[in-house]
Amino acid sequence: MPPDLLVARVDALWLTPIFVDPATARAAAKTTWRSLYVYGTADPSCDETALRHIAAATEGSVLSISGGDHALDVEGDVRASLQALTRMTDAVLALVSAPDGSNNQ
Length: 105
What we know:
Blueprint: H1 3-8, E1 12-15, H2 22-29, E2 35-40, H3 48-58, E3 61-65, H4 78-97
Parallel strand pairs: 1-2, 2-3
């Protein structure tokens, strides 16, 4: 399948979403888009509780990067940062290649 067709099947990919902003969090919770949420646990811009609430409300999949910052980098650990990018890439590929769009993270 050509890459442009794969991308057309993804409704929303939320990379390090800024859900500490209440307006953004409220708007995201009202979406019906098929979604994958990727965030770092050390990202001060991400409210993990809000993100998990939004993911549950939208039946989205969540990938958390332990120790990852807003760029998904793990400070002082190049290998963990590279593993984070690999995990994110695998999650995106799983989402776009699933026939129904489900993501079994």
